[in-house]
From TrEMBL, chains A, B:
<dbReference type="Pfam" id="PF02771">
    <property type="entry name" value="Acyl-CoA_dh_N"/>
</dbReference>
<dbReference type="InterPro" id="IPR046373">
    <property type="entry name" value="Acyl-CoA_Oxase/DH_mid-dom_sf"/>
</dbReference>
<keyword id="KW-0560">Oxidoreductase</keyword>
<dbReference type="GO" id="GO:0003995">
    <property type="term" value="F:acyl-CoA dehydrogenase activity"/>
</dbReference>
<dbReference type="InterPro" id="IPR036250">
    <property type="entry name" value="AcylCo_DH-like_C"/>
</dbReference>
<protein>
    <submittedName>
        <fullName>Acyl-CoA dehydrogenase</fullName>
    </submittedName>
</protein>
<feature type="domain" description="Acyl-CoA dehydrogenase/oxidase C-terminal">
    <location>
        <begin position="216"/>
        <end position="362"/>
    </location>
</feature>
<keyword id="KW-0285">Flavoprotein</keyword>
<feature type="domain" description="Acyl-CoA dehydrogenase/oxidase N-terminal">
    <location>
        <begin position="6"/>
        <end position="116"/>
    </location>
</feature>
Automatic annotation (TrEMBL), chains C, D:
<dbReference type="InterPro" id="IPR006091">
    <property type="entry name" value="Acyl-CoA_Oxase/DH_mid-dom"/>
</dbReference>
<feature type="coiled-coil region">
    <location>
        <begin position="241"/>
        <end position="268"/>
    </location>
</feature>
<keyword id="KW-0285">Flavoprotein</keyword>
<dbReference type="Pfam" id="PF02771">
    <property type="entry name" value="Acyl-CoA_dh_N"/>
</dbReference>
<dbReference type="GO" id="GO:0050660">
    <property type="term" value="F:flavin adenine dinucleotide binding"/>
</dbReference>
<dbReference type="Pfam" id="PF02770">
    <property type="entry name" value="Acyl-CoA_dh_M"/>
</dbReference>
<dbReference type="InterPro" id="IPR046373">
    <property type="entry name" value="Acyl-CoA_Oxase/DH_mid-dom_sf"/>
</dbReference>
<feature type="domain" description="Acyl-CoA dehydrogenase/oxidase N-terminal">
    <location>
        <begin position="6"/>
        <end position="121"/>
    </location>
</feature>
<dbReference type="InterPro" id="IPR052161">
    <property type="entry name" value="Mycobact_Acyl-CoA_DH"/>
</dbReference>
Amino acid sequence: MDFDFTDDQEHLRDAVRKWVDKGYSFERRRDIVKAGGFLREAYTELAQLGLAGLYIPEAHDGLGMGPVEGMVVMEELGRGIVLEPLVQTLIAGGVLSGYAPEAVKAAWLPRIASGEALVVLAHQERAARYQLDACAAQATQAGAGWTLSATKSIVPVGDQADAFIVPATVAGKLALFLVERSAAGVSTRGYGTQDGGRAAEVTLKEAPASLITLDGLSALEHAVDIGIAATCAEGVGVMDKTMAITAEYLNTRKQFGVFIGSFQALRHRIADMKMQLELARSMSYYAALKLNAPTEERRRALARAKYQLGVSMRFVGQQAVQLHGGIGVTDEYIVSHYFKRLTQMEMTFGDTLHHLGEVSQRMQDKAGVFA
Amino acid sequence: MDFDFTDDQEHLRDAVRKWVDKGYSFERRRDIVKAGGFLREAYTELAQLGLAGLYIPEAHDGLGMGPVEGMVVMEELGRGIVLEPLVQTLIAGGVLSGYAPEAVKAAWLPRIASGEALVVLAHQERAARYQLDACAAQATQAGAGWTLSATKSIVPVGDQADAFIVPATVAGKLALFLVERSAAGVSTRGYGTQDGGRAAEVTLKEAPASLITLDGLSALEHAVDIGIAATCAEGVGVMDKTMAITAEYLNTRKQFGVFIGSFQALRHRIADMKMQLELARSMSYYAALKLNAPTEERRRALARAKYQLGVSMRFVGQQAVQLHGGIGVTDEYIVSHYFKRLTQMEMTFGDTLHHLGEVSQRMQDKAGVFA
Amino acid sequence: MDLAFTPEEQKFREDVRNWVHANLPPDISQKVHNALRLSRDDMQRWAKILGKKGWLGWGWPTQFGGPGWNAVQKHLFEEECALAGAPRVVPFGPVMVAPVIMAFGNAEQQKRFLPGIASGEVWWSQGYSEPGSGSDLASVKTRAERQGDKYIVNGQKTWTTLGQYGEWIFCLVRTSTEGKPQTGISFLLIDMKSPGVTVRPIVLLDGEAEVNEVWFDNVEVPAENLIGEENKGWTYAKHLLSHERTNIADVNRAKRELERLKRIAKAEGVYDDTRFRDEIAKLEVDVVALEMMVLRVLSAEKSGKNSLDVAGLLKIRGSEIQQRYSELMMLAAGPYSLPLIHEAMEAGWQGDQALGGLWPGGAAHCAPLASTYFNLRKTTIYGGSNEVQRNIVAQTVLG
Amino acid sequence: MDLAFTPEEQKFREDVRNWVHANLPPDISQKVHNALRLSRDDMQRWAKILGKKGWLGWGWPTQFGGPGWNAVQKHLFEEECALAGAPRVVPFGPVMVAPVIMAFGNAEQQKRFLPGIASGEVWWSQGYSEPGSGSDLASVKTRAERQGDKYIVNGQKTWTTLGQYGEWIFCLVRTSTEGKPQTGISFLLIDMKSPGVTVRPIVLLDGEAEVNEVWFDNVEVPAENLIGEENKGWTYAKHLLSHERTNIADVNRAKRELERLKRIAKAEGVYDDTRFRDEIAKLEVDVVALEMMVLRVLSAEKSGKNSLDVAGLLKIRGSEIQQRYSELMMLAAGPYSLPLIHEAMEAGWQGDQALGGLWPGGAAHCAPLASTYFNLRKTTIYGGSNEVQRNIVAQTVLG
């Protein structure tokens, strides 16, 4: 039992933090939002730091690191509310490494690690909500390969990614495929998202696809759990910075002749926010440390973590705006962007009520971290 | 649309308040608790004020009054956390007047109105929780009459009441009966309850019974709704006094050299308590004014009211203790008794989660008071 | 005590309902019912329709051309408008400045300004808040110096709702720095077309520009535009605030939006999910309780008995409910509330033709949900933040 | 970073577990697992068993006869005891006064007092709170006047937990009224059998007498019972408070009680009710998050890196969780938690024979639920109320 970070992990954190502070100013971010919500150049910078290869084995030119390093990185990106979706790259690295045939690995992993290829998960369907096993997309075997027909929504940077990881049914069972955006039958329609980022509707009409695995539900659940752990860490980073911004504001802003940070009711609110932050941080650790556990244990833990994060992110985001007062609801001031990011993250990979259901369903007689 | 009380209603309120203030001091109440939780003499005093006949028609020697008068009275009794269960008498008066055959009415209503007979509802069964249609008790026709076999729990002053209103099944359908405590086959075991009051387990073994109605579920639901409305009003009274006690404490008690009522965090807590009190008062009005509405509308409204009261009573009770600090958890100081009363009332006639379920199930497309 | 409205009140409600249904343009109510973007024209069209009927100043006494309704009638009128999907009347003219002009303005001012307000011809804005003032409204810094028969105004107002459309603005200005901050404030009406007035929209977190900054740079204002006496403006402003009562709770809109929430939950397939449905059920109780509280206040106003001091509670609860229904609507749509498609917030948007209209998932009702949620975060901040309201409520309990 | 305990730690846990299972009397653990009433004898029996093993002072360094465990080992020991259903060790001797005697007492005092504490022979009480002091502990009024080689103590302490059993009491007493309130306080050990000491139980809202008032009426205390220097008692008391860390969260008990809650919910038929089950699920997450927070603190203590200042958060959350599980247990039983049957809180109670044991409904587990709920309202009040804790937490964020 040990929650200290190694020196290597601390160096990794420093490197990412430095890039965020120096390379991803709020002004640059604002320009990226204006330009559509994604900047490939910024993504390439992340890849140059090695982050795109974090979950890719060294044999495939990655760093071969694990969930704790993923947590460290995502926390720092969260602090800067970085739009470029590294969480997707962690998912792609993890899922392809874990489930894809060797040929697919060899073809894609090195390119993902270098940043040359951006691969994202395209699983959301209109009727599915947060249920991973609800899937109308169909796959058909065509000679040695496969074709897919599907309509997937809210696919992160879907109109600029190079390939998609797509769940589709084969004989009633979920399988996972890789589809290139440039393939025949693929069309996309991109748009900005509420947090300033970018997503797209992706339509596949008999698009050629490579099979990743026929055990698609296991792989998809794993993919989403990687996403949850990363989102938890990112959420901690976003909240940590949100708290800092808010605390500074309370200690700067005067009303009725005194700093508003001297009002006890606001101080107690800050204490409640700090509580939510530290509970969330604790559960982010938990998510990272359970990400490689056996399936049932992993799913239970990740649901618990995302539930806590959902509660925390909503509270911290809303209260940060409230404590700022009027300036908190302006586009100009930074805190509203942190709030919007927190809001969007709550609805990513299952919202709070969804994960409450998961926790409730997966409950056991035993209690606690190790149960 | 008019929420003013008539002069008669105000006089009624004054009369009850005067009795509570002068006739039901905290010391007298403490003696009653010590002596077992019920004092017939005090109940008789209530009856002498006419309160036992509130819901009994004038033709049967009652006052023939309605839910608003019931609300006024229960609120005042709540203020004094009066242990003697007038709510049971309102139920008995309402149900017998509304559902019993003339002979039963003639035999019992005048005696109830005078206070000579105390009749209580005995419906709780071990497996039923708050479901009114779950009933293991059996009724058997025996000549012109009936006999009942049943085990009923937590019957208010069950070992001292004169008769019980008992639901039991006849050919799989719920019917309602009246059973005298002195009848053959009736045994009771009384005990104190958490709020200082009294209840009993009541066992019937082929006890002779008078039929009130074969439409027992309707009558029982009505009985419980009368109970809910009365409990809502009583809860408002208890909370109102709890708030007053707490406010006085905050304005008297000093810590760190100042009145603790000057701390903003505590002031905001008081504001939140006031909110809950006024929401509860509003819903108590609503309950009273919907008590004579058609069944479905009545049931929906009463569930909404009891849900709100449950939320409010829990919050106000807990916070009152919290704001008092150490003295709030002592038996000696009065506020803990108000807290315990509020706690018990939440679990009477369906708790908060139960009524949430009722509200949820009975929800319609339309919204608001008149929907 | 009676929950039902009197036959006269019911008749009144019916008359209002019939008139609103006959006169509210369907293209406008369609936007309101779906939280789509309302243009200046939409708002003013409805204001002028009301004005023509004599109902834009629905709270006005007959002596100034209003209908002279009592508290219950006003409420019924507001409720029928809200439920029918009428846009909220921009309150700065008919609800806010008009009562001040009636109470404290001179006959000349009443004759000059009230008709334009009553008809909906003139768009008024409010100039109270200043940068940094927040809930401390008495900290007015905008100066008005008397020079002959004019005031020269310099300073800045902010959070001026819909000020981009404003033609006139009523302002609290500082005419004296002596004594307590409250004593040196005056109430001035300013023509926004005057030289030196600059309006800059503030983009809010939902990307819309609902509020503005307004600068005054040596703006000349005729002294005849001063309401009442110099340095007594704070008294007038407080009088105005005391006029905001039950409408602060906005319970009529909450009822309409709760019904919309149920429609959205059904369309998104979560209405029959126990967990989600329970959240709606809780909100339902919240709305009923708020409505009962509003009705209690109205009854007390009508009869003059048992007056209730619950304005703070109404503000707190009303704003919390607004935030909650918008939150639940957004959560009902979940991921489908995440696309930010500005054009989808215009009426008549048909989806993305390139994708055969399938966008996102073909459900246009999703488009405004997150924006509305973001936008309504303001409700617990403006009009005296809920923290300030809690101070006020505590004062009523503890002294 | 690793969630798993090291093999050494796991071995340690196993050894403790085996020993506890072999030595904890089943009649005692049976009471603990069912929240039945514990007698003085129950508590002391267990204390002496621990004492004999050398584990009653489980936090003590080896030089004073303790096991010299690190933070993680202490936690594992506490967890195994809690999960096995051991009574909580009454902390006033081994956890509270002993560290002060070790740090600030002289060799004579250490020799005289520590053995009786370590063995569990001597029952210690705490004399900090006074009537009216509340969270303001420095407002000590109990006076100790030096007369030759004695102190004469006059005054009153209150909220003295289990003081009715106490043999010795450590007190904060006022030895000077000069300077700040904190500077005139001394730390004095008092034999409770001394003439002039009176103990009066305070009945709490659950009807039990868990705490006491203790009066001192010209009580003579040998000056050799003064710990450290006169007027420096506040420093020692603060030192002691800084020793209360993770145990303040009581997460081990919370785990045990959460499991009990699940058993009760099953027995009462609400475990499979979505609404009730969800409430348990939320609590489950709360407990896991609290446990993770505790483990983070332990890890930091073990390695000395990244020390965490979250004691206030642990207190707040731990107490809220205690209140919540007791609330849910009570709500699970619902009406059946309402009978107040004092005899049913004794082990071995067989129900009411007159009714064939059917009482209430035959479920003995219902009897203590409401009382426990009432009793645990204290947890957000004592040990520095949660409001005071929030002040402290805010201080760490805002300064």
